[in-house]
Amino acid sequence: MSSRIMYVIYKECIHIVRDPRTLAVIFLFPVLQLILLGYAITTDIEHLPTIVLDQDVTPQSRDLIQAYRASNYFDITRHASSEEELRRSIDKGTYRAGLIIPAGYGRDLGKTGKSQVSFVIDGSDPSVATMAFSAAQTIAQAQSLQLAIQTKGVDPQDLPGIEVHPRVWYNPDMKSVNFMIPGLIALILQLLTTLLTSLSIVREREQGTIEQLIVTPIRPAELILGKVAPYTAIAFLDLAMILAIGVFWFGVPIKGSVILLLALSLLFLLTTLGLGIFISTVARSQQEAMFLSLFTLLPSIFLAGFLFPLEAMPETLQWISYVVPLRYMLVIVRGIILKGVGLRILAREVIALAIFGVVIFSVAARRFRKRLE
Which helix (H) or strand (E) holds 98? Predict the structure, then answer.
């Protein structure tokens, strides 16, 4: 190898070492990917939040509830007093499944050895619904076998046992496209606005035109508004395009209010635009801004429940997901499109998103103004 090539290699190494932020991103990016992919990418669902409506309240019904609770699949933490309360809890997304034990369950089981229960499943996430569908029937069959063994002098095969009638809500056919399209809406909104906003401002700084804007009478707040407004319009155009393709091409039904979806999407844009502005104050080049945007996008994809259910993740990652704004937007989008819920059901997510949006945008705008000054 010639000395000239060695000098070029030496020079390039110096450039890399002199840019510690890009160097940190280069090495942290694969580490973060490995950790997130290793822990977050799993379809093994355990401790699925489950609500119970026990209309029988007998030892037999309590035994069935205990059988579901003893499994690793369902985490029963609440007893509903009515079907309306059960429906409202699943609408909110607080619970992903519901066991309904009708009145007379214990009596029928004692007389004929046969009884029926209903198992409600939130089908908005097909992977979770499929697991819950299978586990609900498996646990009932195991409980039926246990009852048959306890019945002396009767062949276990002669006892029909407990019949579970699963009812899949929101996505009865458990189509994955009905789950993915709403999620893509939120993800694309974040990706476009964060990446394009950060690149636009950094590009102005690289070309020296940002200094020309500073010497004009325009105020920092007006400059920020002027920079983010076009990308807000682009985001809404993309939103309309994705909705149209989802409905007319993929057949995804929109059960809720499109106006409410647009309004809450604007609230979410406060967070993504603020993140883009913040990145523009940190990055020194467009390449660095792109790296940082992708760096913030990865946790959002894997920790917000976009691809993989949060219930399958370790508890530590589930707690971390509460500081990821995309988590709340995914609940909002899927709730409006698949469940048809309104603002009352989504109040918790809307409040959280509003807090994140105001805080992130305010901090980013203040930092941007200081950079201008």
Answer: strand 97-101
pLDDT digits (tens, 9 = 90+) for 19-31: 666 666 666 656 6
* Statement to judge: residues 195 and 339 lie in one domain: yes
Instruction: Kindly state whether residues 185 and 328 are assigned to the same domain.
Output: yes
Do the domain assignments include residue 182? yes
Nearest CA among 334, 327, 317, 316 for reference residue 353: 327
| Whether the Cβ atoms of residue 153 and residue 198 lie closer than 8 Å to each other | no
**pLDDT, tens digit (0-9, with 9 covering 90-100), for 315-341:** 788 888 898 999 999 999 999 998 888
Domain boundary pick from 169, 189, 221: 169
Does a structural domain hold residue 335? yes
- The three-class DSSP label of residue 166 is strand
DSSP designation for 53: E
20: CB partners within 8 A, 6+ apart = none
Name which of 230-239, 271-280, 282-291, 329-338 the model is least confident about: 282-291
Structure tokens at 151: 């019945």
Is 0.70 topped by the overall pTM?
Answer: yes
State both tokens at 43.
Answer: 């379809």
Q: Which residues of 23-34 are buried (b: 16+ CB within 10 A; e: fewer)?
A: eebeeeeeeeee
Q: Terminal CA-to-CA distance of the chain, rounded, Å?
A: 49
Amino acid at 151: T
Shared domain for 125 and 224, answered yes or no, is no
Contact call for residues 273 and 197 (beta carbons, < 8 A): yes
CB 144 within 8 A of CB 162: yes
* Dihedral angle computed from the Cα positions of residues 304, 307, 313 and 319, in that order, rounded to the nearest 10 degrees: 0
Type of residue at 103: A
Instruction: State the average pLDDT over residues 108-126.
Output: 83
Q: Which domain holds residue 146?
A: 48-169
Q: Tell me which of 283 and 244 has the higher pLDDT.
A: 244
d(CA 260, CA 325): 18
